[in-house]
Amino acid sequence: MAVDREHVLRSAAALLTRKSTATMDEVAKAAGISRATLHRQFAGRDALVRALEALGLAECEAALETARLDEGGAADALRRLVRAIEPSAGLLAFLYSENQLFEDGAMNEGWTRIDARFAALFRRGQDNGEFRIDLTPAWLTEALYGLMAAGAWAVQDGKVAANDYQTMIVELLLGGALRREET
User: Fold this and answer.
1) What gap in Å lies between CA 36 and CA 141, rounded to an integer?
2) What is the pTM of this model?
3) Who's near 174: CB < 8 A, 6+ residues apart?
4) Residue 8 CB: number of other CB atoms within 10 A?
């Protein structure tokens, strides 16, 4: 019986997001496989985390392409980006919370590329008057990562509906939490 590597990685990410100290036995159980099968796929925890990061980078790069960030207004591009990333939200939540693990130069280059593309979207929105200029593109990028991770956790825990993921993230980021007076 063939092991679905992507299923194993997604199961591991879902577990490790909520229990970073989970053992390889617990990861195997969450994926529905034996510990021996898990170890045939990943030599150890470090190999598992590296595979999670590689999958996260690939999926984030694909989402960036799908979102067509250079088309239309920046706010609409942001909505498309969050929608495109949503299927990978659990994986990205794990990677965001475990970012101190990423010491590999090749992986860091991937995240640097992704950060630059996110920041360029926010900069474009600032340049065309859509986004506030008192918040740096780097900060807006980090805030977006944090909101996407929090949204993934809330959906995973059943605290919010999956259908609300994109709206909650984008509208909070773009509008803030302050209630505006209607005029």
Assistant:
1) 39
2) 0.84
3) 75, 78, 131
4) 22
Query: Quick one: residue 129, left, alpha or beta (phi over 0 = left, psi -120 to 50 = alpha)?
Result: left
Q: Is the pLDDT of residue 82 over 90?
A: yes
**What percent of the chain is modeled with pLDDT above 90?**
61
* Residue that has been written with the tokens 């679905």 in this structure: 4
Tokens standing for residue 88 = 């990978």
> Per the structure block, which two tokens stand in for 100?
């101190």
Nearest to 104 by CA among 53, 140, 30, 163: 53
Instruction: For residue 31, give both structure tokens.
Output: 């994926």
Find where tokens 């640097």 sit: 112
3-class DSSP string for the chain: CCCCHHHHHHHHHHHHHHCCCCCHHHHHHHHCCCHHHHHHHCCCHHHHHHHHHHHHHHHHHHHHHHHCCCCCCHHHHHHHHHHHHHHHHHHHHHHHHCHHHCCCHHHHHHHHHHHHHHHHHHHHHHHCCCCCCCCCHHHHHHHHHHHHHHHHHHHHCCCCCHHHHHHHHHHHHHHCCCCCCCC
End-to-end CA distance of the chain: 64
**pLDDT range class, residue 21, cuts 50, 70, 90:** confident
Both structure tokens of 122: 């926010």
